[in-house]
């Protein structure tokens, strides 16, 4: 009676505990449901995209009549003819900078120059923890011959106090000025000339003619570095007159050019980078392509893109587009998915007319292509234009690339393009000029599915949350033993006491196995750190081809792994159970993806899509020996295919095939890709080698685990 009374008075576990035990007992089914739901939710995102809207009422785009007129177009044409003559006679490119400087002075604006050197592209480990722009050197003595020269004009706002500024950037290659770059400079100068006469300005205007002979980003980044981190010098900066004549720069009528003191305006409210691309021979109207992605997935405030889109489409008649994966537009399987979602959406609308989830098949295909490109560019962590340099200083910026359709000799079409392009830039400046504070109302975290449609952070986090949800449940089930979860829940305290504490001792003895699993993880993480640092030494090899560097990198990585296993012990020699090894791997994934989602969510999203299915469904290949042929073949094929897909070079091949439609593989491509990531200090490089690669190696250890030996020992005991 007393024993039964004790059992009756024993409190039941809480609901959350019972739910956890239930999920852990059915963790395989729970993992399948969550992973499938996460992938379906990711494919469903284009149907959940919303139309963009202006959150900041002060912007009021298009409220004022544009002042840019045909007279400004005539001024732009005059500028084009004169700069064509100057650039044709110039041998070193400095004559172009001189001409731009003279035109700025004639407007009565302030003028200064900025001399810079290209940054070093050599790998350095500390580069990931310091800003890339600190590598930009500013040459003060002017003795070098290989340098770039930016020309800056500043208009002081008649209604402002000099505390805020709007930046306009026009890149051009001073060594070889193309006709499209001349058109860009003419467009920039005509707008700058108009703004020099504007009485409504309350923010200073800075026009940066960026010398892009070392790249557009390098020129803008070097100028921003000097703008925000001033370098003081006690002597004037001049160019040596002994240099080649083409490398001289003349101001006024003096032969020896003295560099004027670096001038600044106020805090940057926004920046607009614009250039004219190659003339298209097809299309019914001129188009504008927007580039918004900055370093490590940063995006400008959505209101800035909304202003550009509204003025370009509804005021000036441009066709606005964004980057897209062209291979997706002709994909047959994507069209099948679109038809399924369209049918599902029509069925849901019959149930509730307010559920507007279905989209047309062409819209879904185009939206998916744009979404994939937006996610890829953000996950890559590399800016898509020189506007990315402004985001390093928390300045909202966007790049516009105009694609005209007129013929080069069609002067009327060219004048019409200049008129509409100038009014577009003027309208954007007018809207930003109305702001009383920085952009803050709209979204900073979003994906674009169209120039006028976006997916906010609250929506695109759903697939990631569904993919990550099974990780703690599976780790707990593997650590505790899912088969004994229900038994442990029904055991009473008296039963554990009756065993004389044997269970407690057994649990204590079992807990030491975690140390072996943690040791394995520590060794692999140490190996991953060493592998990520190897390029610093490999790049010291002179004149080595990318293929040679990649092979050396792979061989050294394998050798180091073998040495570490010999010195510290391998996972198999330590006798670690594969369940504990897998639980450790899943715990590492959870921490790594959680940290990466804070730095760059797009990288974490794509990483979860590749890593989580591979790790959740990984089982030792020898554990399938007791199954029948068909289930064994399916599990074996799925494990091997997921492991191959999770290997970083294989993932690169898949991304290359989806983005460019090319499925050819070259060993040197992986080295070039990694070199590209560390050159831009992308956090994706750290993710690949500190999170992705260790988890993939742990998954390989789980697949090759000799589990049959441990099972035979248990049966004998």
UniProtKB/TrEMBL annotation:
One of its GO terms (cellular component) is GPI-anchor transamidase complex. Keywords: Membrane, Transmembrane, Transmembrane helix. The keyword ATP-binding does not apply. InterPro entries: Gaa1. GO terms for biological process: attachment of GPI anchor to protein. The chain crosses the membrane at residues 21-45, 457-480, 520-538, 550-568, 633-655, 684-704. This is GPI transamidase component family protein / Gaa1-like family protein.
């Amino acid at each position: 009676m007393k024993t039964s009374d004790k059992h009756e008075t024993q409190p039941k576990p809480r609901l959350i505990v019972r739910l956890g035990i239930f999920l852990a007992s059915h963790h395989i089914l729970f993992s399948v449901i969550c992973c499938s739901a996460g992938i379906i939710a990711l494919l469903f995102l284009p149907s959940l995209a919303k139309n963009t809207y202006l959150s900041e009422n002060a912007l009021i785009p298009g409220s004022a009549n544009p002042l840019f007129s045909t007279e400004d177009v005539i001024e732009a044409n005059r500028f084009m003819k004169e700069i064509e003559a100057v650039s044709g006679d110039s041998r070193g490119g400095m004559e172009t900078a001189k001409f731009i400087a003279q035109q700025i002075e004639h407007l009565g604006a302030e003028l200064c120059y900025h001399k810079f050197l290209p940054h070093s592209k050599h790998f350095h480990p500390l580069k990931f923890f310091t800003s890339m722009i600190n590598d930009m050197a500013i040459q003060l003595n002017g003795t070098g011959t290989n340098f770039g020269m930016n020309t800056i004009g500043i208009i002081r706002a008649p209604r402002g106090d000099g505390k805020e500024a709007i930046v306009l950037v026009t890149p051009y290659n001073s060594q070889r000025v193309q006709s499209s770059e001349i058109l860009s400079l003419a467009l920039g100068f005509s707008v700058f000339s108009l703004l020099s006469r504007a009485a409504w300005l309350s923010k200073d205007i800075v026009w940066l003619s960026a010398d892009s002979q070392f790249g557009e980003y390098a020129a803008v980044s070097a100028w921003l570095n000097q703008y925000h981190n001033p370098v003081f010098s006690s002597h004037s900066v001049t160019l040596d007159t002994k240099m080649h004549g083409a490398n001289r720069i003349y101001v006024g009528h003096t032969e020896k050019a003295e560099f004027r003191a670096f001038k600044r305006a106020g805090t940057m409210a926004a920046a607009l980078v614009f250039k004219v691309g190659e003339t298209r021979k097809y299309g019914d109207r001129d188009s504008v392509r927007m580039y918004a992605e900055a370093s490590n997935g940063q995006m400008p405030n959505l209101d800035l893109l909304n202003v550009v889109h509204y003025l370009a489409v509804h005021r000036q008649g441009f066709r606005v587009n964004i980057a897209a994966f062209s291979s997706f537009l002709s994909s047959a399987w994507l069209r099948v998915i679109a038809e399924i979602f369209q049918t599902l959406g029509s069925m849901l609308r019959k149930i509730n007319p307010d559920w507007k989830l279905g989209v047309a098949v062409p819209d879904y295909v185009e939206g998916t292509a744009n979404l994939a490109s937006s996610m890829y560019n953000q996950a890559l962590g590399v800016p898509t234009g020189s506007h990315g340099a402004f985001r390093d200083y928390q300045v909202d910026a966007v790049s516009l690339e105009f694609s005209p359709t007129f013929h080069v000799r069609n002067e009327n079409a060219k004048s019409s393009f200049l008129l509409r392009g100038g009014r577009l830039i003027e309208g954007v400046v007018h809207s930003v000029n109305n702001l009383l504070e920085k952009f803050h109302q709209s979204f900073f975290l979003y994906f674009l599915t169209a120039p006028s449609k976006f997916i906010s952070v609250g929506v695109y986090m759903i697939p990631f949350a569904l993919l990550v949800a099974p990780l703690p449940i599976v780790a707990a089930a593997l650590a505790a033993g899912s088969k004994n979860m229900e038994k442990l829940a029904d055991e009473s305290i008296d039963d554990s006491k009756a065993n004389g504490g044997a269970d407690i001792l057994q649990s204590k003895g079992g807990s030491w196995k975690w140390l072996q699993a943690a040791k394995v993880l520590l060794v692999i993480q140490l190996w991953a750190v060493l592998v990520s640092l190897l390029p610093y030494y490999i790049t010291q090899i002179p004149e080595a081809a990318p293929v040679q560097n990649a092979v050396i990198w792979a061989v050294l990585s394998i050798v180091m792994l073998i040495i570490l296993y010999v010195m510290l012990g391998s996972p198999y020699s330590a006798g670690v159970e594969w369940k504990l090894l897998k639980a450790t791997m899943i715990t590492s994934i959870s921490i790594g993806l959680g940290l990466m989602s804070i730095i760059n969510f797009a990288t974490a999203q794509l990483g979860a899509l590749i890593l989580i299915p591979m790790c959740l469904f990984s089982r030792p290949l020898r554990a399938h020996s007791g199954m029948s042929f068909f289930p064994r073949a399916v599990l074996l094929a799925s494990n091997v295919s997921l492991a191959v897909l999770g290997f970083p070079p294989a993932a690169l091949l898949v991304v290359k095939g989806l983005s460019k439609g090319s499925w050819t593989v070259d060993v040197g491509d992986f080295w070039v890709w990694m070199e590209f990531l560390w050159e831009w200090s992308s956090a994706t490089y750290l993710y690949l080698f500190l999170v992705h690669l260790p988890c993939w190696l742990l998954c390989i250890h789980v697949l090759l685990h000799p589990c049959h030996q441990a099972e035979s020992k248990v049966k004998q005991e």
